[in-house]
Amino acid sequence: MAEGTVIAENTGGELMQDSVSRTLAIEMLDGVWKAGESLTLEALQSRFGISRTVAREVAKTLESMNAVLVKRRIGLVARPFGEWQALNHQVIEWRLHSTQREQQLSSLTELRLAVEPAAAASAARLAPIDVKAKFPVYAAQMRQIAEANEEGEAGLAQFHDLDVEFHTLILHESGNELFAALSDTIATVLRGRVELGKYPMKPKPDALDAHDAVADAIAKGEPERARSAMLDIVDEVARALNFF
């Protein structure tokens, strides 16, 4: 494991806990802290300059993700990634900022291909009329921001906030509680693609057209057209990332 990293403890106890948990998780993902290796709470306190209370919270956070085992008199024992809660949005965020980012993006894109077209078709069938009417509004706002984006990163952030809301609403209106439960996961990968510089500053016309098509199909209650248009959206992502 890396040594000598010190994060001075301050008034932001929760922020400190998150920062240390993130650092350790990424070290496990990068192979710096290998599966089976242990770290005592005392070593954790010393390395990061944190209190016993914060060290225990870090242990609880990592244990809740199945990233470590916590054993008395031994401390935190790193677990193989295959045992982690891979769909947890926090784990995904950690992985997107590790050396496994490309693999994570590829896996999540495959998940989106499996889930989102079906969710869009279901939303076209099942969403209430007043909710269906929201989708063309989202799509129009996204196009307006994208085509008039003279604000650089600020404009792009507005676009992606709407994009996250658009996709989240589809998952929640699909009538499938498992699809809805994936909304944080999908939102994390949508935001992560931007944070990692994997999205153009100006969204492509094809992507805007596909969002328009999904929105129109859902609003008009046309499941198969909604499915096909959503497939176009995720296919465009896969092509842009050179995965398929």
Biggest sheet strand line-up: 1-3-2
Task: Note poorly predicted spans.
Answer: 6-11
Structural class, by secondary structure, is mainly alpha
Helical residue percent band:
55-70%
List keywords for this structure.
244 residues; mainly alpha; Arc Repressor Mutant, subunit A; Four Helix Bundle (Hemerythrin (Met), subunit A); 2 domains; three-stranded antiparallel beta sheet
In short:
By secondary structure, the chain is mostly helical.
Q: Could you characterize the architecture of this molecule?
A:
This protein is mostly helical and 244 residues long. It has two domains: 13-83, Arc Repressor Mutant, subunit A, CATH 1.10.10; 101-240, Four Helix Bundle (Hemerythrin (Met), subunit A). Helices cover 66% and strands 4% of the residues. It has a three-stranded antiparallel sheet with strand order 1-3-2. A hairpin with a 3-residue loop joins strand 2 (68-71) and strand 3 (75-78). Helix 4 runs parallel beside helix 10. The longest helix is centred in the middle third of the chain and has 26 residues, at 101-126. It starts with 12 loop residues before the first helix and ends with a helix.
